[in-house]
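User: I need a structural model of Sirohydrochlorin ferrochelatase from Luteimicrobium album for a docking pre-check later this week. Nothing fancy, just the predicted structure tokens so I can convert them on my end. Input:
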Amino acid sequence: MTTTPTLVGCSHGTANRAGQLAIRSILDDVRDARPGLAVLETYVDVQHPQVGEVLGTVPDGSPAVVVPLLLSAGFHVYVDIAEAAGARPDTVTADALGPDDRLVALLRRRAVEAGAEPGDAVVVAAAGSSDARAVADVEAVVEAFARTWDGPVTVGYGSMARPTVAQAVAAARAAGASRVVVASYLLAPGWFHDQLAGAGADAVSAPLAPDPELAQVVLDRFDAVSSL
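Assistant: Understood. Predicted structure tokens for Sirohydrochlorin ferrochelatase:
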């Protein structure tokens, strides 16, 4: 692309106001990190304007890069976003944000902030997907987290995949864990994060956003395809 594309940050969408602000903070940090870059916000569900609508506002002839503000690549990336991007010339889709070592480090930091200590069992809680590629993305993050943590690390899902977070917490206790901490591998507050309080853990970490590191991940995804 010879002209700098517009960055279209596309999140899932949420009715939770704190979640909306957390997602917006990521794109605000992107704007601060790269002044002059055109940055638009859009969604694949729940909120409007959705991705096809926003791409329709980019001037004809101007390139655009849709960066999924999603932690793994499943249906929304491979179908919803891909179809919207494919319907517009000079538009490409970047990779999802995860897996990424910076997300693993941030997830670990959130767990420690919530009270996780060496020896505690950690259940990484992800939203879940019926797409095996999205599940593989999450499992890569869990494996990377486990390499940095002195204690058992497992995974639980909010929907579509198994085990559930509650099942993973129960399994950790059955395996002998005296304390279990749920590490919320979710980008922002919302329905999935709200459910974690009832999973039976001793502590639940905050979602990843807001955090300035996320803006750099977004820009790296953008840069990886904007030069193609």
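Before docking, keep this in mind: The helical segments are 17-33, 51-55, 75-86, 101-113, 132-148, 165-174, 191-195, 213-226.
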